[in-house]
Amino acid sequence: MKKILAVIAMIASMAMAVPAMAATNPFMDVPQGHWAYDAVGLLASRGIVSGYPDGAFKGAQPATRYEMASVVARALVAVDADKASKQDLELLKKLVMEFKDELDALGVKVDKLDKRVAVLEDGVGGWKIRGTFMFDAKFANDTDNGQYYYNESNKKNDFEKEQFRLYLTKQIDENTYFYAEYRTGADDAGDDVNGRGDLQHMMWSHLFLDTKLPYDIGFRVGRFTVDFEEEYGLYTDNDAVFGDFRTDGFRLTKQWSNFRATAVVGRNDNLGIDGMNDSGSGTHMTYVLDLNWQPGEKFFAGATGYWFDDDSTPDTAGDLGVKNYGLYAGYKFTPAVELKGIYYFQDLGKDVSGAAYEDSPKAWKAVLDVKQDLLKFTGLWIEYSQQDNTFLGYNDRYSIGGGAYDHVGRNMEYANPYGTSKWWFVKADQQWNDKWSTFIRFANVGYDTAGLDDATEWGLGVGYQYTPAIGFELAYDQVDHGDNGWAVGDPEVARGKDHVVRFRTTINF
């Protein structure tokens, strides 16, 4: 019983507030041996409640009924559902009933506490099913002989199930959590699905269990996402420069004060990166190590290493190993203004990039993130990046709607392998009230390649939250790929302008 037990000492003047009809003297000590001491002591030992101001749990010291009631009230306000088990919550309910009169005298509404317990119980023990459904109506046009990059299969207009996802979760106990995600749709992030008609491609994209090992080590096993750029707020919309993939394997996490280490061992990745697609066929082992330091609320820094080791392709395939290293940092000048970025460098097997091409490409980006709290009328995201054209990263980033939409990096595979592309992305979001929102966005890439024109994208939209569960959005977006006259005979090279008007319905349930 070394955990501290928080007790609010009641001054004598509060006795005047005690209802005259109270059946029990609230200043009477709870007798030694009463079950309430054991209950509070157990909750304190499990970290559910905190203790006296001096940090000690005085289990042998008698407490008045008022003091016990204060402990109960504070516990129910501050209890952490991630720590509390169903048995813990049953104990709290029992304590509420025991000290009901004292809680009333303190002005604490017992019915509200009952509701708080019900909410906490709702998060422990039972299965939860949630979901997201996006339906897009897209009306497109183009100047490129009917390619219609915003709509798959050269459709000018299209209605499609953009995204359907079900989330199945269970809080098994205070340390163990299960998560499963079932998905389909045009933007399913992992399969070639068009989102039209009767959908045939469905999958369980995530299946994992989180628990705690000795020495407070977090342990995850199953299929899960590896995306450190998202974890540290290094991108918005779509997508990371590198990362953001799923793997089958294990993850270990350990926190030491302001330092955290995360290690991943996996296989069967779904990395959608040209040159690394074989990693998803089970030919590569994946090793990841992230070291993160955050000494305060303003600053963070760290390093991430990815090692993809080919161990299953024939020896004649050559050296297909990939190593990717990242150094990142961020600083908040104010809670509303943050400067952050990441620098990557790779070591590619000679048969990944080709012997004649750069085998140690680099990429970096810097982001200025300004929240609407500062500017009042808008939030602002300004991102600049550079990457060597043989860098293995995501080239379809900055699209308005994921992989099922056009994007400025569509011609990246035709870029000079000795060049360095330069990217801009700017987005302004406006939240006018709890119903209405708007956005404006701009993206540009210069390929550093003679004859291959820069590509530019811009778009805008307005959103309306009809109910807490249903939202509508009307948006316009355009990508101009340039003339690209040098490749006029190649039908795969994107050229001209493509644009779309999109009406999206989003349902969260």
TrEMBL record:
InterPro entries referenced in this protein's UniProt entry, alphabetically: Cell_Envelope_Struct_Comp (IPR051465), SLH_dom (IPR001119)
Pfam family for this entry, one: SLH
Keywords: Signal
Domain SLH: 23-86
Signal peptide positions (record): 1-22
Xref: PANTHER family: OUTER MEMBRANE PROTEIN ALPHA (PTHR43308:SF1), OUTER MEMBRANE PROTEIN ALPHA-RELATED (PTHR43308)
Protein name: S-layer homology domain-containing protein
Species for this entry: Cloacibacillus evryensis
